[in-house]
Write a structure and sequence with these properties.
Blueprint: H1 2-11, H2 18-33, H3 40-47, H4 51-57, H5 62-86, H6 91-108, H7 111-121, H8 127-152, H9 160-177, H10 193-206
Helix pairs in contact: 1-2, 2-3, 2-5, 5-6, 5-7, 5-8, 6-8, 6-10, 8-9, 9-10
């Protein structure tokens, strides 16, 4: 996604507003080099600006720039997640497609990966902004589905807040352990994210009791 944005930006400097072009190039650098490896000078050079001019668009520099990238990525994630949810009718079907989408999300928008990277290095003053963007992108769409399911009787009378965090926590944990070494005794995504998503959702909906 970042490469496509950068390619689009470089087709014609007049086609993309300068702030968006900066974000496109900076995201490509972040994807390739990680937060610590990114140079504002290199970004400014690629978009045809001086470094002081880059600070005109992002006065707080690197931190503000990458928080803006994260916010944009999470906004796109929310739009995509809400779209797949709205295409289904029942709360159970909506949870199915939501869990499938979330299991694939790192490859689509890198929202969570970006959030981990950015929050590790940016000043605490940005943390509330990042948290709100995450809540809007992932928590609130899932909470809406769970709450509606409880209200309609599709799900038993559980606390939607607890269930929503349980879903996100389980998915996040499964994605994290799959980043460990191949010898780690953990469920592998090698067999397919869809299968793992089904197993995770089955556990959430039915538990482990016989």
């Amino acid at each position: 996604m970042a490469d496509m944005r950068r390619s689009s930006a470089r087709k014609g400097r007049g086609e993309v507003p300068k702030r968006e072009e900066i974000l496109n190039v900076a995201e490509a650098h972040l994807t390739r080099l990680g937060y610590r490896g990114v140079s504002l000078h290199a970004i400014a050079t690629e978009v045809g600006l001086s470094k002081p001019s880059l600070y005109h668009h992002f006065p707080d520099g690197k931190e503000e720039l990458f928080v803006a990238i994260l916010n944009r990525s999470l906004t796109e994630a929310r739009t995509a997640l809400e779209s797949v949810i709205s295409a289904q009718e029942s709360p159970t079907e909506q949870l199915h497609v939501a869990v499938h989408w979330l299991m694939h999300e790192p490859a689509r928008g890198r929202g969570i990966e970006l959030m981990h990277d950015v929050t590790r290095f940016v000043d605490a003053k940005y943390h509330a902004t990042v948290a709100e963007a995450y809540l809007n992108a992932h928590y609130r769409p899932i909470h809406k589905v769970v709450a509606a399911g409880v209200e309609s009787g599709a799900f038993r009378a559980v606390d939607p807040v607890f269930v929503t965090w349980s879903i996100l926590g389980l998915i996040g944990g499964l994605m994290e352990v799959n980043l460990l070494s191949p010898t780690t005794p953990a469920p592998r995504i090698d067999g397919g994210e869809s299968q793992l998503a089904e197993e995770a959702l089955d556990l959430l909906l039915h538990g482990i009791a016989t």
